[in-house]
Amino acid sequence: MKNYYRYWGKTEKDGIRYHLLAYHCLDVAAVGWVLLGPHKPLCRRLAGQLGLPQELLQRWFSFFLCLHDSGKFATAFQGLASGLSPELVPGSQQKPYTERHDSLGYHLWDDDGKLFDQLCNSCFSLWGKPSVNSIQFRRTLDVWMQIVTGHHGSPPKTAPINLSNHFTTQDEEAALQFVLSLCNQFLSESDAAFLADKAFSQRLKFASWELAGIVVLADWLGSGRLPDTYCQHEIGLNEYWQNHALPFAEQAVIRARLESSPVAPYAGTTYLFPLIKTLTPLQQWATECGFYGTNQLFILEDVTGAGKTEAALTLAHRLMTDGLADGLYVALPTMATANAMYERLGKAYRRLYTENALPSLVLAHGSRHLSDSFRKSLVLPEDQNSRRMYGCEEETAETFCSAWLSDSRKKALLAEVGVGTLDQALLAVLPAKHQSLRCLGLARKVLIVDEVHAYDPYMSSLLQRLLQYHAAQKGNAILLSATLPYAVRASYLQAYADGAGLEAPQLEPTKAYPLATHFPSSGVIETPLSTRKEVARTLTVRLLEAVDQAMTVIKESVEQGKCVCWVRNTVGDAIEAYRQLTKQNWIDKDRLALFHSRFAMIDRQRIESETLECFGKDSTAEMRCGRVLIATQVVEQSLDLDFDVMISDLAPIDLIIQRAGREHRHVRDAAGNRLDKEDISDQREPPVLYIFGPPSTENPAENWLKSALPGTQAIYQHVGQLWLTQRLLGKAGKLRMPHDARDFIEGVYGEEFESSIPDSLSELSQRALAEAYGKIGMANLNALNLSKGYSRASSDGGGWEDESKIPTRLCDDSVRIALVVADGDGWRPYADVVEFAWDMSMLSVPNWRWQKAKEAISLSASTSLALLREEHKVLKWVELFPLTPELSAWYDNRIGWGLYKGDADEPD
Q1: Global pTM?
Q2: Do 286-417+442-528 and 537-695 have matching folds?
Q3: Domain segments of the chain: what residues?
Q4: Percent of the chain as helix, strand, coil, to the nearest 5
Q5: Which residue, 44, 65, 301, 749, shows the most beta carbons closer than 10 Å to its own?
Q6: pLDDT of 77-86, one tens digit each?
Q7: Which contiguous run of DSSP H or E holds residue 389?
Q8: Helical H segments across 454-532, by residue range
């Protein structure tokens, strides 16, 4: 028996069944062999990037993949399951398992080790000592070894270790013997020359991110062999490869449904969205703009209701039809907006593919398991063929998602169509565990980023890094926004151009709006667009300086049967306004609602559903009459809401424009019923946008904003921009959309207007700018240096831990809380539901608020809650708050988490 047959690779908890290490390595390599079949687009694309023949890439990749678990040859690892068989290498107390096997595997072959020398010498001898640069040869092999030994989602640790603390001489000899046997099986004499090419080594570093993702994928699939098929006796490596590994791998890949579905021929926007009767100007442009046979960036700026999503999907389908993409990922700012988009796409995405195809649509965010639609879309592997018995019309009515793809957010981007938060895509350029799998998933996808204006400098900087990498992958991107400042638009174009290796486009400031910006290989094209008259409107702007004035507006509107929304900048201010309204006798309390983010999930879902029903597209006059919603920023993004009257706290101009887009969004009659006929104007009274804030003045004091809206200043710290916003709106007295959009945006964010900020506010504004630059610096520190290849050296800021520890957004320290209620002598979840009761009972609050609440919990309750946490795995990292009679004031299903006037505050 050859020594390498004396090591186990997989074992069961029963302590009886095990699978030999050599065979497990071949199982995983066989999956890689199947995934990189020379005829497959993935292999053709990567081989093209690397400048290699496809068959050569397949063989070398599979060869190195056999080495992914080399660290398991360590006696230290073998001791984890000693006593399986007397034929296996026993563990040793002198060699405890103190280093992970992935890093052990890297160090076994790193270029400082004697085994590496033996491998190189043996290979040179085997291949007739080819005339290669041995130093470059070593460097290239080192890149390969980091790719394959990083198979658990992060690159191996490269800090020096003493191999003798983990491996015996016999272990090292067995590993070398195994590798030499693999050389004979996979490689030939002429194979090695390209490894000494310095240019190839650089190309390999860039491709390493995707290759590492394939390694992770291959290891997951290759580790799926059932214990009943484990092999414990000696079989020749080639025989096992042909008769066991390859057949297993082919079935594993089929079950995972990783093959791209065939794309349907492009048939226009109305084919994707049959309910659209007339295309908007933006949608018409999306059907007609020229393509350039290579990867492209689109930036679409238009008013709310212009059909940006439909235009983006039209462009995506055209790109897919032209062979420039295989799928798409739609990234949104919040889980709520992602859920809403998932519902919309579930009715259209199947039309992107041919009639009999079953493409997967995956929802990618942390709470997706709470989405009924997503759970209903999951299909177990054995169900997939049975669904093909139904006709296409039956299938197109349902979303379809491979259960394997859906069981982890880390795999979600591998689905053909994905919808989720931007965070899931940003993790591709951060040192997060399984980052490489996200790189692989985004390849050949159209990246659609919605609500681009919603991101702070930190996330915007990370998005630029993502665009740069995606362009280098020859990926296409579409950015959607109501409005973007000139400098922000230019920064996204610059990032994409850098990644594509093209000269940065030179943008000239323009007043055109709506605007479609298209960056192909030949330059940049900016196309001014018109607006359909239904969404073009003029809103009278009136400034309010006192809460009583806002209350008067609400009272008069309610008496006239109108529906009203007041968007407050903080949860505390929203609750205070809601409480004031509950004391008024002129409003029906059943027609008054509060909507913010500090509700338990079960209450938030209920409130969001009621909000969409009462103020959404299909709401009726009866539903809307005299109804008032006090809300925070949760209503700004991607919720299709339509109010008769809008009051907004003073906020940056782009957010004001967003909020204004929720007023008279749909054409209605005087009573508020929706009118579907074309060429009919809105019959309600002309819209008025009320802005609540401090008194308007040309000479503000330093505390101008804080004295009126202290919470607002804590959130929107660039006070000068808010002063400019108020001055612009006050002087204009109206907001004409889309006519005024560009002037107003540049009038606040344009560099030339910074000098207009009063001296009394300049210091506060400079502090805000410094904080913004600090966020940009933090993003640059946290983001990966992808040019260094898949390695620990690519991260200057540490990382490579679980994604929860890698910030995709900078926010105040918050605590996840689960609400519990008494149940006899014990506790139960606040949410009285059958499924996911604990998840539905959770909410997040700022840490300092939790510390206050925690002090109110009795010692006896704390003790019993600690025991409850131990009983439920889902509560491991969650704080528990008991809604006992004495603590009930802390939470109310209409108000949310209790906040009190005078506290500092936070948004949402």
Answers
A1: 0.90
A2: yes
A3: 3-256, 286-417+442-528, 537-695, 812-897
A4: 50, 15, 35
A5: 65
A6: 999 988 888 8
A7: none
A8: 457-472, 486-500
Q: Which CATH number fits domain 537-695: 3.30.70.1450, 3.40.50.300, 3.40.50.620, 3.30.70.1060?
A: 3.40.50.300
Segments of the chain with pLDDT less than 50 = 127-128, 130-132, 368, 370, 374-375, 377-402, 899-904
- What values do phi and psi take at 150, rounded to 5? -85, 35
Longest dimension (CA), the chain: 95
- What is the DSSP annotation of 229-292? G---S---HHHHIIIIIHHHHHHHHHHHT-SPPPBPPP--HHHH-TT--S--HHHHHHHHS---
Half-sphere exposure of residue 336: CA atoms within 13 angstroms, side-chain side? 21
Instruction: Give the three-class secondary structure for 441.
Output: helix
Q: In this structure, what token pair is assigned to residue 49?
A: 């990037």
Strands 8-11 and 18-20: antiparallel
* pLDDT given at position 410: 66
* Cα–Cα distance, 322 to 294 (Å, whole number): 10
Domain covering 286-417+442-528 in this structure, CATH number: 3.40.50
Gyration radius of the chain's alpha carbons: 30
Q: Return the C-alpha torsion angle 475, 343, 341, 470, nearest 10.
A: -10
Distance, in Å, from the CA atom of 48 to the CA atom of 660, rounded to the nearest integer, reads: 49
The number of beta carbons lying within 10 Å of the beta carbon of residue 617 is: 12
Residue indicated by tokens 């996200």: 438
Question: Are 726 and 650 a contacting pair, CB within 8 Å?
Answer: yes
- Strand extents, DSSP E, 110-239: none
- What 3-state DSSP class applies to 706? coil
Structure tokens at 413: 């981007």
Of the candidates 838, 834, 828, 821, which has an alpha carbon nearest to the alpha carbon of residue 877? Answer: 838
CA–CA dist 899, 902 (Å, integer): 9
As a whole number of angstroms, the distance between CA 712 and CA 705 comes to: 8
Residues ≥6 apart with Cβ < 8 Å to 333: 421, 422, 450, 451, 454, 455, 637, 638
Task: Let me know how many helices (H) and strands (E) the chain has, helices first.
Answer: 36, 25
Please write the tens of the pLDDT for every residue from 736-793. Answer: 999 999 999 999 998 888 889 999 999 999 999 999 999 999 999 999 999 999 999 9
Tokens at 553, concatenated: 């507006």
CA 542 to chain centre: 39
Instruction: Tell me the two tokens of residue 124.
Output: 């040179």
The whole-number pLDDT of residue 604 equals 93
The dihedrals phi and psi of 186, each to the nearest 5 degrees, come to -105, -30
* One-letter amino acid of 24: H
By CB atoms closer than 10 A (0-12, 13-18, 19+), residue 765 is buried
578 vs 281, 574, 594, 905, CA distance in Å?
Answer: 40, 6, 7, 16
**What residue has token string 């969650």?**
878
Which tokens sit at 680? Answer: 């009919």
In the DSSP assignment, the letter for residue 674 is: B
Task: Report phi then psi at 646, rounded to 5.
Answer: -125, 125
Rounded Cα gap, residues 84 and 101, in angstroms: 19
Q: Taking phi first (over 0 means left), then psi (-120 to 50 degrees means alpha), and beta for anything else, what does residue 479 get?
A: beta
pLDDT given at position 679: 78
The token pair that represents 470 in the structure block: 């995606």
Contact assessment for residue 788 and residue 205, using Cβ atoms and an 8 Å cutoff: yes
Query: How many CB atoms are located within 10 Å of the residue 278 CB?
Result: 10
Q: How many CB atoms lie within 10 A of CB 251?
A: 13
By three-state DSSP, how is residue 134 classified? helix
Q: d(Cα 378, Cα 195) in Å, to the nearest integer? A: 44
Q: How far separated are the first and last CA of the chain, in Å rounded?
A: 66
CB 854 within 8 Å of CB 865: no
Q: Quick one: which of 859, 856, 862, 868 has its CA closest to 826? A: 868
CA distances from 637 to 132, 196, 668 (A): 58, 53, 22
CATH number of the 3-256 domain: 1.10.3210.30
- Cα distance between residue 63 and residue 33, in whole Å: 9
